[in-house]
Amino acid sequence: MVKSQRIGSAFTALGLIGALAACASPGANASRSASVAAAGQNVGVATRAQMALEQGDHATAIDFAERAVEGTPKDAGFRALLGNAYFSGGRFASAEAAYKDSLALAPNQPQLVLKLALVAIAQGKHGEALAQLDAARGQLDPADYGLALALAGQPEMAVAVLDQAARNLGADQRVRQNLALALALQGDWTAAKTVAAQDVPADQLDSRIQQWMTFAKPARASDQVAALTGVTPAAADPGQPSRLALSPPQAETRTAAAEPIPAPVAEPAPAFSEQAAVESIPAPAPEPVIMAAAEPAPVVLPPVIEELKAKRVADKAKAKSAAARTGARAANLMHKASFPKAVRGNSKSVVQIGAYGSRGFVGVAWSNLAKKYPALRSYTPSSARFASAQGTVYRLSVQGFASDDAARDFCASLKRAGGNCFVRSVAGDAPVRLASL
């Protein structure tokens, strides 16, 4: 039984269907009211469902899982297994119903919340998926949480989550590739390719980007979930059988309360008139709140996601404003800045032009700066890893100057043009490996 539910690395190590088959433990939550014999029999049926699921026989898995749920309806494990069988068979609406029933019986199942969010996304229910993800965000793997946000139509928030996860000690290629895919879904193909290049062999990189370009423009809501999980959406989904619906918790109480109250015998009761009885009871006034509740509720993002979205929008607006001011200032200064004629040499002096928290952003930064200040292209971009008090950073510099004075003259010209830089000695700097952009 796996301990956590993880979406596979984008198009590389999917494995989600294997996890679907293994994460439900038949009979783990069997109803105490069920007889030992019945519980044992249904565990056997559920085990056969799980075996069929692991073998990819979805129809058989669904049949046995439905029988197990019908026999022991209050078992959360059986209902989770039924949801997995529906999911692997591409029946997303049925899977949604089974997962919700399982969570109603046993709420503390974060891995089931992730799958519930995925089937909601596959049906185009992004608002519901975001609410489900927000409720379990502290229990989900950041790589899965971030990628699920991107699939739910929030790639900017996904990039914020995955970028932070990629900076953490021990972050693996799965986190980085999910970050690259989120950047692609955001439309930042340059950054996506640069981050993906950290783990994808150069001869496979263009093919990966082509996959993502197709992935970013799905024809149906289910296409992206299907591509990531390897599931083929069912042509038709009849829904979970009504006989398997979870019984309302207060059904027995309501039945007991319906017993008739004996009529008083002190006086003979008047002849019963249905019309008079109806007329004697004033009709209750309509309740506006109830009527309003019947209307479709607008999609509202969970509070945390709303805050994150608002922050991202505000940061983006600030960055755009700052870029506009910088661009205007640079335009005014550029004609005043006169860069010295480039003379190549082997000086140990380098001009540092940036420092970043991720190696993957070095190439992106160089591409942007080289476009903004073409004079940089006369020298060799280099990078060096540096352990600072705030954590590891990756320096971006240019080298190949004829002398220390030449480096200082160039930096001074760059500052006059609106750039930032300083001169230092070589400290482990090596040429930057740039992907073909």
What does this structure look like?
This protein has 437 residues and is of the alpha+beta class. Among the domains are: 16-229, Serine Threonine Protein Phosphatase 5, Tetratricopeptide repeat, CATH 1.25.40.10; 349-431, Sporulation related repeat (Alpha-Beta Plaits). Helices cover 54% and strands 7% of the residues. It has 19 helices and five strands. The protein has helices spanning 16-22, 36-54, 58-71, 76-88, 92-105, 110-122, 126-135, 142-151, 155-167, 173-186, 189-196, 202-215, 223-229, 251-257, 274-280, 288-293, 303-334, 360-372, 404-416; strands at residues 349-356, 380-388, 391-399, 422-425, 430-431. Strands 4-1-3-2-5 form a five-stranded antiparallel β-sheet, with helices on one face. The radius of gyration is 31 Å and the shape is elongated. The two termini are 43 Å apart. Residues 1-5, 8-19, 21-28, 30-37 and 250-299 have low confidence and may be disordered.
